[in-house]
Amino acid sequence: MNVFLDSCVLHKDYFFEGxxxxxxxxxxxxxxxxxxxxxxxxxxxxxxRTQFEKELQDRNLSISKINKNAERLKIRIQFPIVDIEKQLxxxxxxxxxxxxxxxxxxxxxxxxxxPDIVDxxxxxxxxxxxxxxxxKDALIWKTYSSYVEENKLSDCVFLTNNTxxxxxxxxxKVHHDLLKDTxxxxxxxxxxxxxxxxxxxxxxxxxxxxxxxxxTKIDNMxxxxxxxxxxxxEIKSKIERKIERMEPSNVFNDIRMGGFxxxxxxxxxxxxxxxxxxxxxIASVYSIxxxxxxxxxYEYNAARDSGEDHFNYIGDASLVFAMTISFDxxxxxxxxxxxxxxxxxxxxx
Length: 349
Prior knowledge:
- The protein is an alpha/beta fold.
- It is built from 9 helices and 9 strands.
- A 5-stranded parallel sheet has the order 3-2-1-4-5, sandwiched between helices. Strands 6-7-8-9 form a 4-stranded antiparallel sheet.
- The protein is elongated.
- The two termini are 53 Å apart.
C-alpha cells in the first residue's frame, strides 16, 4: 500500500509519536516493517517544520509569562526557555533519518508543475476557490498525482483532513476537478481512520511475512548467521552421526580393511543457492551448506600381536560435506524447523 501524507494529519504530531491514540506511530511502524510505503512532499515537510517552529515560539511566550508572574510573586523558580534552533535541528535530523528508511520517500516539487498550477489558479479549479488561493495545496497535489501516474502506482491512499480543498461531498474521494490528474487515490481523513479501516488487513500474518522478506536481505550471509545462531548444534549432530558410519575407504581409496573415522567440527566453509518461498504466514529458506570436519582415520589391525591396539592410525584429512537444508522464518524474524534434505561427502582435502 502507498500512503501519501498531508501536513494536517500530523498537526502537532511531528515525530509520529501518536500521543493521543498511537495511530500515527502505528503507521510509521508499518512503514519500517515494509508493510506500507510512505510518501511526503517536501512542501509538507516544510509546512510541518514551520508549524513546529511556531509552536515552540508560542511555548516560549507562555514560559516568559510564567517566569514574569513568578518574579512578581517572589516565587524563586525560573523555567528555562526552549532553545528553538536546537529543537529545529532535532526536527531536521529526524526527517533526514526517515529518508534513509527503505520505504519512506520525500518527494521534491518540480518546476514543471507551474504552468498547470497557474491554470488551476486562474480557472479556480480545486484546490483553488473564489475566496482563497492555496498554492501549497496545489503543489502538494501536483507532486503526488504526478508521482503516482509516472510510476503507475496502485493501492494509493491520500491521507488528509483538508476535505474542503481536496474533496467534494464524498470525503473519501478526491474532488472531480482533480480527477483529470489521477484517479488512483482513495482519501482517508485521519491516521485513526486509516488504522481503523486498513489495520486488520495490514496486520495479517501473510502481509507481515511478505513485508519482512521484502525488507530483509536473505542471502548467503543471512543464512550463515542463522545457522550459527539457531541450528549449528543440529547440523554438527547430523554430520557426526554420518561420520560414525563411515569406513576408512570412504576417506582413503587404497584402504581395504575396516576401521573407523573420528571427526571434529572445523567450520562452515560456504553457503550458496539460497532460495525463499512464502507459504501462508511462513517463509521457507532453502540453501546448500559446505561444512568442514577435521578427522582421523583408523584401520582395523587384523595382524596385531598380543597387547597391540585393535586399530592403527592411518592419517588425518579434512572432510567437506555438502548439506541441502531448509528452515522457516516467521514475520518477527524467528527461525525454526530446520530440515536436512540431503547430506553427502563433497570433498576430501
